[in-house]
Fold this sequence. Notes:
The chain is mainly α. The chain has helices at about 5-15, 20-30, 30-45, 50-75, 80-90, 95-100.
Amino acid sequence: MIPLTPREQEVLKLIWDNLGSKAIAHQLGITKKGVDYHRHNLFRKTGATSELSLCRIVLVKPVLREATRLLQRVRNGSPVDLVEVEQWLKEHGIANDEATS
């Protein structure tokens, strides 16, 4: 997992929501220059060349890796703790309490 600051994570989630720098700045209460700084750091840390590749690298790949790991455990006959899966989904902002209840 690529280590991101809490602010970088916030900016990334808003990029995922297809917001531009001005809208992100307004929503987070920071300047557009601040958003551009965090955006630059996200691209630098990930090596992404577009917003789509940035979201794919940071948001999608970890989910696919975990899903593959869990599927392999199931195929090998290993038990999979659904509580552990639900917790992982919540920690990564993929599911909330309503979706996993």
